[in-house]
Every structure is written in C-alpha cells, then in structure tokens.
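ingest -> fold -> write
write: protein_1
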Amino acid sequence: MKIDFDGLQAFVCVAEFSSFVKAAEQLHLTQTALTRRIQKLEGLLDARLLDRTTRKVELTATGRDFLPQARHLVLDATRTLARVRDKAQASGGHFTLACVPSLTTHVLPELIRTYAQQSPGNTLRLLDASSHDVRAAVLDGQAELGIAINGEPHAELQEVALFEDPLTLLCPTPHALQDRRTVSWTDLQSVDLIVVSSFMATRMFLDYQLGQRGIRLSGHYEVQHHATAINLVAAGVGCAILPSSTFENGDRPHVVKIPLTGPVVKRRVTLLRRKQPSLSLAAENFHQLTLTHFGKRRR
C-alpha cells in the first residue's frame, strides 16, 4: 500500500485543531486542497475518518482508533526527514576523490585539512592513481572529483586548470650542483639521474617538452613512484627530476630542490568532474574549496 504522507499530515492536523479552517492555515493550504487530501486518504483506507458539519468536525470511530497511529507515523517521518536534512546541511555526507600520487605530499593534504575543518562530519575516500586512471575513475563514476595532469579534452568532463607545476631537480648533499641557484637541462648530461617511468604522465610530458627543443635525457635509474625517487635521492644514489609540488626544502635531510631552467618546463594540474550529473553536497563543498584555494572562479 502506498503511504500518503500528505493525507496523514492533513488528518492529524484537522484532528488536533478540530477545524478545517485552522488546519488549512497551519499547513498553508486552501480548505479545498485540505479536503482533497483527507478524501484521498479515506479513499486509500476505504474508511471514513471524519464527520464534518457546518459547525464542527468530529472523528469517526475508525478515525479515533487510527489517530494515535497516524500521529506516530507523521511524527516519526518528520523527525527522520529533519535528521537527514540536518546531516546533509551540517556534514554533507561522503564522496570519493581520485588524485595523482605526486600531489599527495603537500597540495592535497592542505586541501583535506581545510576541508575537514569546514565539514568535520564528512568522510572522504581517496583513490591515488595515475593521471589516466584518475580521468577514467571520474568518467566511470568511481570518483565524483579528480585532480590530475592536463590531458586530452573529453566531452563529458569539465576540467579547470588549478596551477602550473614546474619540474625541478632534487639533488643530494653533498653534490657538485647543490649550491646552484638554478640548473639548466644541459647541466644534467653527466649527472646520475633518477627518472619516473615513461608510462607516467609527468615523464611523458617531460619527454615531449624537451623533445620539442632538441633536448634528450636518459636516466640511470627508472622508478614507478615519485616517493621512491625521493628516497633514492636522500640515500645519495643520484638526482631526480620531479614536479615542484612533490617536495619542499626541509622535507628530507640531505636533499635540496633546485629550479630547472633553459627552458622552464611546467605541467598543468587540473580539477576534474563530470558535466552531468550534479555533485553531491560533500563533493560540491570540496570542489568549491579547491577552486577558492587556487583563486579560481566557480563555473
């Protein structure tokens, strides 16, 4: 049987006030609309609940028996809806974010920390994956939002550029280059280099940009993850070419970050979401926070 909440609410209100006029005012309805709700409920129950005369409204025997149950149903439904609404407004619920691992060192933790302060009741599931997989996760609906490296435009994706992330040299100390204010790409020809896999977005972007300028670098060591490259640099194995956002001077002893020039090569970090459907409140809050953090206008 279909539950007619409007009819139950109308019946309880009329019974409480013993008046169609007062009940209609309370529910912000016309008396005609209120009468229709009562009639619909009586039709659904196949029972008369109210006797109405020109002077008064009285409950039938069936109405008197049904009133306590109807009152309980209305009160329980009202409280349940209020709890859902309050939780949605206060905490926003849960959402999944996909992000490239290179941004989980400094950029993402700062965003999550601020988000947690603004929405303390929310929960967030993080998928750390390659830039290609981040885009796939957003497209497939596994994640509502994604933070990745700029890629090919997709008709179903909305992509907002957040910031330009220059590639830098991580150098162990002591090292011949450690005191340089900048290092050029040609300075790296004789350096033991640690590079990320050619399948990673950062490496593909680097090879393309340098190839356009006739510069070719080969690494002595190839790794899958930026964190592994940093560990090898800290151990004195060699120097690594990594996005600036992955490391701050002071993060690790005996490792310094030096800007790379001639040319400066930057990757573009973007915020992804599907154009449809709309975001959950939790994801919308994080989306707006991220845009505000990087000084972007909401789209």
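write: protein_2
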Amino acid sequence: MKSENVILVVVNPIAGDNDKDNIIELVCSEIKSRNFSLEVYKTTGEGDKAAIDRIINEDNPYRVLVIGGDGTVSLVAQCIHQKEICLGIIPAGSANGMAVNIGLPTEVPQQIDVALSDNIMKMDIIFINNKLCLHIADLGINAELVKNYENSGIRGKLGYFLQSIPTIFNSDYPFEFEIETAQGIEKKTGILLAIANANKFGTGANINPDGKINDGKFEILVFKNLDFIEILKTAQEKPEMSPDFVSVISTDKATIKNKAKVPFQIDGEFMGEIESAEVLIEKESLTIAVPQAYLELHKKEQHL
C-alpha cells in the first residue's frame, strides 16, 4: 500500500550539463512546506533502476518527481508503470520531450506546482522490442541525427541544428519499410519512420498533431522526402501536412521490418541500428501530473 505522505525525488545531476542545486532546493523546500516526507535519490548511471525499485518497495511513495531529462523520466517510468504512483516532471535535461508534449510551464516554481498538483491522468506507454517509449521513437534520418548529436559537444537546439546538415548529406536514406498491422501489410519508402504516442519531438516539432497519449493507439508516420516547406509546418500547433509528404497509420500493434539495418532512437536516446521492430501499446498504465489545460483538453477528447 502506497504512503500518501512520502514523495521520492529522483535527480540526474549531470542531465543538461547545468547545476541542479538551486532546482533541488526549490523542490525540496516546497515539498516540506506541504508537510510531505521526502526522499532524494541522485542517479549515478550504474544500478539506478534497482536502487529506485528498492526505495519504492521500502518507502511506498505516492508520487515520484524527476529532476532531469527524458532519459531519467523514462527510467522512473520503468519503475512505476502499472503502479498507483504518480509521476511529476521538473525538466532539467538536454532533451525534455515529455515536458514539451504536456505543455509544462518554463519557470521552475510553476513546474513544481504542476508536479505536486491533483491534475493527474493515466497515459499510454509504447513498447518497442520490449523497450519503453513515452512520446516518440523513430527509425531513419532523425535517429541518425540523435546519434550525431550525442557524439557532439554542443547541447540544446543549437546542437541539433549544427548536426542536421552533415546528417542530411551523409545519411543512407531513403529507407524501405514493411509495416504489418491488423489492417494488413504495407510497404513504404521514406527518410524517416516515426512511432508516436504523443505529438512532438523534444525540439517542439509537431509531427503527430492528431495523436493522443490516452487513446489506446499509436501512430506510425512515414515521412517520404525532405520537403522543407512541409517540415516548417511542424512548427505550428496544428500543422496540416500533405499526404505526399507523410502517411499515417493508427494502430495498437505493429511489426516493422527494414531491408537493412536502420538507425533507431527512443525518446531522444540513440538505441543503435535495427532490422525489425515489434511494437505494442500498454493502455493507460502510467499516472502523470499535467497542467490543468492539458488535462481538460484530454478529458474533452475522451468524450467526443
């Protein structure tokens, strides 16, 4: 049985290459002011999942707050999905895709308010070859960009921009994909195949405007070419992209095969190169604190 008075704070001290001490102080101060008990765990990169699992089993927290990026959020999600424990996010990484997707405020005090609020919802999780995905995974040119970005020394949007041009010129695109769903088998050729639970990449690019994180479906989006006018549309909140640029399949299970090994990333982390992917969704298995506007939007959509 979970404790209604214990909050676990998981901190990645090196996420985003910025000092976390001030954020930790603000978070801990606010938690204590609300009369909660507090446990802080700082990740080391070794044995973190086992350590977090042990703390959860011993302290039974009712909420876990993450101070870090998408990698740390994913780590904690692995520990608490299918449990009645709420996830709160204080984005502090070089990639903060989940924070972008749920529309978290940019100021830390407001982020803390959301993370500790009663505005909670249950979201779906995708598993790709048994690996957890919260917002977007992809095969192709963007995964290659993620790999090059990870190997560079410059973080943030500037780092992605600086790696984009050499990635475009050196990539082996187009790629050939075979996609099998309950609707049948389709063969597609493109520069990128995205598997999307949410709407946006961590950069803010909205590639899946009609996706919902609590509808029991994920979208497979095959981007066919480098059409820069269409790519610019992804900066809009509700882009209307041409079917000549992207095709979309909505499903709850899929097998994806490639003729050759293709670069692969999940939630902004490069995972190597793969020839096939088994994809399925775990419906409403992670509880997460979100801004009220995001919660209201999804409540309305659920009842349409």
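write: annotation protein_2
Residues 156-170 form the longest helix (15 residues).
Confidence is low (pLDDT under 50) at residues 158-163, 300-304.
pipeline exit 0
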